Amino acid sequence: MVLGPLTLRDFRCFTRAEFHPTPGLNLISAPNASGKSSLLEAICVLLRLQSPRTNTLAEMIRRDTAGFSIAGRFGSRRLTCHLGAAEGRRLLLDDTPQRQSGEYLQIGLVAFFSSGDMELVRGPSSKRRRFLDFLGSQCDAGYLKNLRAYERALRARNFLLKAGPHRGRELAAYDGPFVASGEYLASARTRLCEDLAPVVARCVRAISGNDENISLGHTRSGGENLGTALADSAAEEQRLRQTTVGPHRDDIVIKLNDLPAGAFASEGQQRTVSLALRLAQAELIRIRRGSPPVYLLDDIFGELDTGRRHRLLAALPDDAQCILTTTTWQWLEESGSAARWSIADGRIQST
Ligand SMILES: Nc1ncnc2c1ncn2[C@@H]1O[C@H](COP(=O)(O)OP(=O)(O)O)[C@@H](O)[C@H]1O
Ligand SMILES: [Mg+2]
């Protein structure tokens, strides 16, 4: 499954641009602020309807225009995503308008690597939950459905808890959906972490060249029984006026040589672990879905030493489509059959 020709309109800095990636390795080089991140972000939005960076897609509408459009093929399917500042999102799948995103999101598979990925190791737990959600929603159709149901129930509960103690009956009405979707998410995330652990360990060895001992564990907020934990937290949530247990407080505990990697690992080790998490995410998508995702690597080579650069390139699978950006590929002497691209004046050109 590969990404075919792509058209962007009024997306970030692009007025109108086309990109025809090849099925293999695509190397894009361009100076800062020429649109590298914008292009990869557009691909991610087209395939997953979300940015790797932000939750507000409206930011991506080119300044002073009414909305963006992105259209392209993935495998045999044709995807189109419009976002209008006034009318909101419109999706087409093979030119048929989609009222819901469920079927649309079954198509595109993406692994996104960015220079902010160190945050996966040393940043707040929200980064790791986002990582799991991005992965989970590509591995299983039920994941996204339950995530949305959970978010709705959580928002409603928090609204009622803020409103005060007299809303107890309304609050109780959300307990059922909250617990059902929460239990689903928690179990799915535990399985994802179990499946990721050996793959991450292999990827850490591939990138560092050393034998480091890495472990991943999912910590479930609310433990094994979310219903009981929710009932037990009733007094506390009334006091704090928010929902205090549930998957919105989950985390992944990452340990390197038995010590928490966020606090104890060196900067180089943290970088290795974050790359390994991304590579493992991509491999797990392939294992669960039977075909690899598109690998999007946005400007991460500049911050790697030469050894890691070459080992990362070698770790990208030969049979996957990879689109890599950087300001310069001068360090790369040999790139075989890779397609090379540049971006200038809002145009993406073969070089
Ligand atoms: N919504 C927008 N409207 C117009 N220009 C934008 C918008 N968002 C970002 N830009 C501009 O797009 C340009 C390219 O940004 P980016 O893709 O991040 O560059 P690169 O990754 O090549 O450094 C920047 O000059 C940025 O200010
Ligand atoms: Mg960039």
Condensed summary:
It contains eleven helices and 15 strands.
Which structural traits does this protein have?
351 residues; alpha/beta; Rossmann fold; Glutathione S-transferase Yfyf (Class Pi), Chain A, domain 2; 2 domains; six-stranded antiparallel sheet; six-stranded mixed sheet; 11 helices; 42% helix; binds adenosine-5'-diphosphate; binds magnesium ion
What ions, cofactors and ligands are bound? Answer: adenosine-5'-diphosphate, magnesium ion
Quaternary state reads: single chain
Number of discrete helical segments: 11
The tally of domains stands at 2
Q: Name the beta content range.
A: 15-25%
CATH topology of the largest domain: the name is Rossmann fold
Low-confidence stretches: none
CATH superfamily of the largest domain: P-loop containing nucleotide triphosphate hydrolases
Please state the CA-atom Rg, rounded to the nearest Å.
21 Å
- Biggest β-sheet strands, sense, barrel: 6 strands, antiparallel
| Helix/strand structural class | alpha/beta
Shape: globular
Estimate percent helicity: 40-55%
Structure summary, number of beta strands: 15
Strand arrangement within the widest β-sheet reads 2-1-4-5-6-7
Q: Can you tell me the CATH architecture of the largest domain?
A: 3-Layer(aba) Sandwich
The run of helices and strands is EEEHEEEEEHHHHHEHHEEHHEHEEE
Give the averaged pLDDT, no decimals.
Answer: 95
Please report the first level of CATH classification, the CATH class of the largest domain.
Answer: Alpha Beta
